[in-house]
Every structure is written in structure tokens, then in C-alpha cells.
Amino acid sequence: MPQSSLYVLPPPATPCLAIDGSEQFFPVRRIYCVGRNYAEHAREMGADPSREAPFFFMKPGDAVVADGARLAYPGQTQDLHYEAELVVAIGGSGENLSAEQAKALVFGYAVGLDMTRRDLQAQAKKGGKPWDMAKGFDRSAPCSAIVPAARIGHPSAGRIQLHQNGELRQDADIADLIWSVPELLANLSSFVRLEPGDLVFTGTPAGVGPCVAGDALVASVDGVGKVSVQIVER
Ligand code: MN
Fold first, then answer.
1. How far apart are CA 16 and CA 70, in angstroms?
2. Are 100 and 182 contacting, i.e. CB atoms less than 8 angstroms apart?
3. DSSP code at position 61
């Protein structure tokens, strides 16, 4: 890295998330997301949930937004959807890992919302086009504070829910993940080297749906935490 005075522009700020119960922050590098990792959700999206290999897509690191954010309804969509997800925060580095090795890289866990322009995603699927603008737009990754695994261990069960204006919309258990967290991370590490600061959104259960300006969304995972956002007019 050159000295900061040699940059022609100020280098971009590092996106970050709070660490639960601490004054410290988790610097975010990349955001990986998993598609169709709960059988019921795979079926609601018209897919076969048999254990095909997991597949991944990405959001930019600076798409992350903290708990309590106000999210402007994004442009280029008439069908913004919420997807409540368990999020894994990576604290170590490695590639081509076994599930056991991958688990050892986990710094902690959080709860996130994989905000999705469902209409653009449907068009992309139909046209064989990339999902980036359906998934990786600005502020598309609200995420709670990160709870260190040193405190809560590695949760393999716990209720995952999404409430929209107090109404329960998604209600499942992270025990129902088709691919467990260590399996997902091991598979992901065969494509890319995992590095400290990476976040992995592990997929959403059934019950995804649209939201509109004025909505309050709360995603939660028992034993991990929750993230709340308010959708506002653009
Ligand atoms: Mn998702």
C-alpha cells in the first residue's frame, strides 16, 4: 500500500459493523451470499431443493448497513423483497478448506437482510443474465451487530424470523439449512480464498415477500440477535 498522501483521491472508508457488547468494530471486506439454502424457500422460488451444490453471489462490502437504518426504497424496482438470513463473519484466512477447518475461521454470527429487487432477479433468471443489480445494490445488506463465536459458540439451531410491521412473515429454524455453515464455507473456499472481514449470508427460509415505504422490518435469529430497518420513500 502506498503512503496515503500518494493517493490521487482519499481512499474509501472501510465499511464496518458493531461487535455486540463491545466498543470494537468488524471491518467488512466482501459479502458472499448463498442462494436457495432452505427447502421450503427453494420450492417457493420454483426450484427443486434436492441437495444440488450450493451457489453463491455477491454484494459489495459497502452495501452493508447497520441495525436501525432507514432504507430508501431503491430505484429500478417495483418489487423490493426482504430475505431474513443468518450471517457468518469470517475472522481468518484460508482456501480449499474442510468443513472443520472452515468452522475454525468463523469470528462470529449476525442477522442480516438480503434485500432483493425480485422483479429484476426474475428478469435476469429468465434472460440468463447476471443478478448483480437485483442483489448487489447500494444498502442492500442490512446486518445486526456481530456476536463473537467465543461467546455463543457455533449455533446449529435456533428460530429465524422476519416480522413486517409486527406481522410474522418468515418463521423457520436455522437447523433447516440445506447446507450447514461449515459445509457452505468449505464449498465457498474452493472458489475463493476466505479472508478476515468477509461476511457470508447463508440463505433465507420460505415466506419472502414485498415491502413498501413505511414498512418496519425486523429479522431475528434466536441466540444471535436481530436487525431492524425502516423502509422510507426514495
Ligand atoms: Mn438470500
1. 17
2. yes
3. G
Structural domain includes residue 32? yes
Phi/psi of residue 100, nearest 5 degrees = -65, -45
pLDDT at 84: 98
CATH number at residue 107: 3.90.850.10
User: Which residue range(s) make up the domain with 157?
Assistant: 15-232
pLDDT number for residue 212: 98
pLDDT at 12: 94
Give distance in angstroms: CA of 56 to centre of ligand 1.
10
Determine, yes or no, domain membership for 190. yes
CA–centroid distance, 202 to ligand 1, in Å, is: 7
Residue 189 lies in a domain: yes
10-residue block means of pLDDT along the chain (234 residues)? 87 96 97 93 85 91 98 98 98 98 98 98 97 98 98 97 98 96 97 98 97 98 98 96
Answer whether residue 66 is part of any domain: yes
**Which three cell numbers mark 223?**
441466540
**Residue 22 CA to ligand 1 centre (angstroms):** 28
**How many Å lie between the centroid of ligand 1 and the Cα of residue 213?**
21
Q: In the prediction, which pLDDT does 102 show? A: 98
Ligand 1 centre distance from Cα of residue 116 (Å):
8
Q: Are 107 and 148 in contact (CB under 8 A)?
A: yes
